[in-house]
Write a structure and sequence with these properties.
alpha/beta, TIM Barrel, eight-stranded parallel barrel, two-stranded antiparallel ribbon, binds ligand LLZGTKA7
Length: about 300
């Protein structure tokens, strides 16, 4: 069972889900081109059908599903309603959700975002969200508080998968890089996590940035954070499981390789979608030997 047991910490729930399904996180990114490829109209009706098939295919089959909020928001309130249904569907199927919404603001506003996505009373609640530390790591405190109180998680952007990210993230300040400082702060946030387990505060470190991890000299620091490392960029952005193993080295066991378009392209047949997912899960099982309990 990977479902929600009242206030069980997110890191523990994630650990159980990864032990059962392996470390892969699959995205639900309803790009207009994918809707068309699935023979669906680029309308909110098309979005709903796409989302329903994705939830049916991925629910109960993977450790973590990551809906990309932007592709729902672009349809306005009706799209957000579909997103709420996706999150509810995943809850029903006892599959952890990570809403990729990349929020970050001054503390008092961050509190409202945290209430929107991490509070048990919200219809938009997910098991975890992505957040941006650009307004200062301390401004994220309300999200950490609400996440912990509700058994939920937060993934902080640290080294993003896009090439432009380096211009900000590799900058140096006070003797450290911005990425290095974020890794340090996340490490501190997870300091009470028992050895071997995931903390409730994760990081986003792209599957594409293996070379940068070595160049910035943060491999060991990453390995010691206890942070689950969401690694988008597998598949459509060109990264492979071998790149992850080579680039993350001793931190590979913390990596949750994330892929969206490469798997979604197998739709609209849910059986084909699930088997595309299985293929990635088999490959990625090498990152966490013995973790994958698939067929
Ligand atoms: O550094 C980052 C952070 C987030 N993403 C998101 O992940 C998916 C990737 O989709 P693919 O189709 O597998 O390329 C998408 O939702 C991004 O917004 C990322 O790519 N990199």
């Amino acid at each position: 069972m990977t479902g929600r047991n009242s206030l069980e910490p997110f890191g523990i729930r994630l650990e159980a889900a990864v032990a059962l399904h392996g470390p892969v996180c699959v995205g639900i990114d309803p790009h207009p081109q994918l809707l068309e490829a699935w023979d669906l109209p680029v309308t909110v009706q098309g979005l709903r059908l796409f989302a329903e098939v994705a939830v049916e295919a991925f629910g109960g089959a993977v450790a973590l599903v990551k809906p990309q909020s932007a592709f729902f928001e672009r349809f306005g309130a009706a799209g957000v309603e579909v997103l709420e249904d996706v999150l509810a569907g995943l809850r029903e199927m006892e599959t952890l959700s990570l809403l990729d919404v990349k929020r970050g603001d001054i503390g008092s506003t961050m509190l409202a975002y945290a209430q929107a996505y991490l509070d048990e009373s919200s219809s938009l609640r997910a098991d975890a969200i992505t957040v941006s530390p650009f307004l200062g790591f301390g401004s994220l405190a309300p999200a950490f508080d609400i996440a912990r109180r509700n058994g939920r998680g937060v993934f902080v952007l640290a080294m993003t998968s896009n090439p432009e990210g380096a211009t900000v993230q590799h900058a140096t300040w006070d003797g450290d890089t911005v990425s290095g400082a974020i890794i340090e702060a996340v490490s501190d946030a997870n300091c009470l996590t028992p050895a071997g387990g995931y903390g409730d505060v994760g990081m986003v470190v792209g599957a594409t940035v293996g070379k940068d991890i070595a160049e910035l000299g943060v491999t060991e620091r990453l390995a010691q954070t206890r942070a689950p490392l969401l690694a988008p960029g597998l598949g459509a952005q060109g990264a492979t499981v071998e790149d992850i193993a080579g680039g993350f080295g001793p931190a590979s066991h913390l990596v949750l390789p994330a892929t969206s378009r490469a798997v979604l392209a197998a739709g609209p047949d849910p059986v084909a979608l699930r088997s595309a997912l299985r293929e990635v899960q088999h490959e990625a099982a090498t990152l966490r030997p013995g973790s994958y309990g698939g067929e």
